[in-house]
Specification:
single chain, 111 residues
Length: 111
């Protein structure tokens, strides 16, 4: 449950809405400033902040992530999920190609 005054701050800064039990259930804003605010708010619960704890952001190559690192003065370290997916697709293509060539060789051998 949010502390007194914190509820209004959360509503203003990240668009959280609260139900009857004072539990947040909806976030309406999804931009770099909002994400950094929310991350800082979360880290404050543990006595930390983005400035003290983070040395970089590992994320994909989207505009919001570029803006987050600019606002927070952090380096963007790209993750390789997309690269890995491309590599896996290339590997599958090579396997299918080798199976196709093997099948062609077997068919031509039988003639």
């Amino acid at each position: 449950m949010p502390a007194a005054g914190a509820k209004e701050e959360l509503i203003e800064n990240i668009g959280l809405r609260f139900d009857g039990d004072d539990e947040p259930h909806y976030a309406a804003k999804f931009n770099a400033e909002t994400m950094l605010y929310f991350l800082n708010h979360l880290l404050e619960q543990y006595g930390q902040s983005v400035d003290k704890l983070l040395v970089g952001l590992v994320a994909d190559n989207t505009e919001v992530n570029h803006k987050m690192v600019m606002v927070a003065s952090l380096p963007l370290l790209p993750h390789h999920n997309h690269t890995c997916a491309l590599d896996v697709n290339n590997l599958i293509s090579l396997i299918l190609l080798s199976l196709y060539i093997t099948l062609l060789l077997v068919i031509s051998w039988e003639r």
